[in-house]
Design goal:
Blueprint lengths: L7 H9 L4 H7 L8 H12 L3 H8 L3 H9 L7 H11 L3 H10 L10 H11 L4 H10 L8
Helix pairs in contact: 4-6, 6-7, 8-9
Length: 144
């Protein structure tokens, strides 16, 4: 997860008292999130992962996955984000953060499909094994 010098509460407090939004933006430029593709690149670097290996493990279409990583595909679907996250070997907290970062809803254990994904992540299943489990339980596969 990105490390910021200010917590969100401090930014809220500062923004509430700000009279010039441009001033706030300039002063806090390093506190804003980077585009999704840059965050994914930072995850690859942090985890020591190779992009080609992650794409292969994700079972995403190569061109589509490269578009996500290059930033030309700006809003990938939740299942595609999950496929990449599972292929990267992210833990549940990292996946929840990535989903919110990608403007997708976090996994919810009261949802049968989501609970299956949570189980798969906790069991460290691959994308292929996760899809097999989803299919076995009559759920829609990550990449159908």
């Amino acid at each position: 997860m990105p490390i910021y010098s200010k917590n969100t509460g401090d930014l809220f407090a500062e923004l509430k008292n700000e009279r010039d939004p441009q001033n706030f933006r300039e002063r806090n430029q390093d506190e804003f999130t980077v585009p999704l593709h840059e965050y994914l690149d930072s995850l690859l670097a942090e985890k020591g992962l190779n992009k080609n290996d992650v794409i292969a493990a994700s079972q995403l279409n190569n061109n589509y996955a490269y578009h996500i990583f290059s930033g030309t595909r700006k809003n990938p679907s939740r299942p595609k984000i999950l496929a990449l996250a599972i292929a990267m070997g992210l833990n549940l907290d990292e996946i929840q953060y990535l989903l919110r970062y990608a403007k997708q809803s976090p996994l919810y254990p009261r949802n049968p499909w989501d609970s299956t994904i949570i189980f798969a992540v906790e069991q460290k299943l691959s994308v292929m094994k996760t899809n097999e489990l989803l299919h076995q339980l009559g759920e829609t596969e990550l990449l159908n």
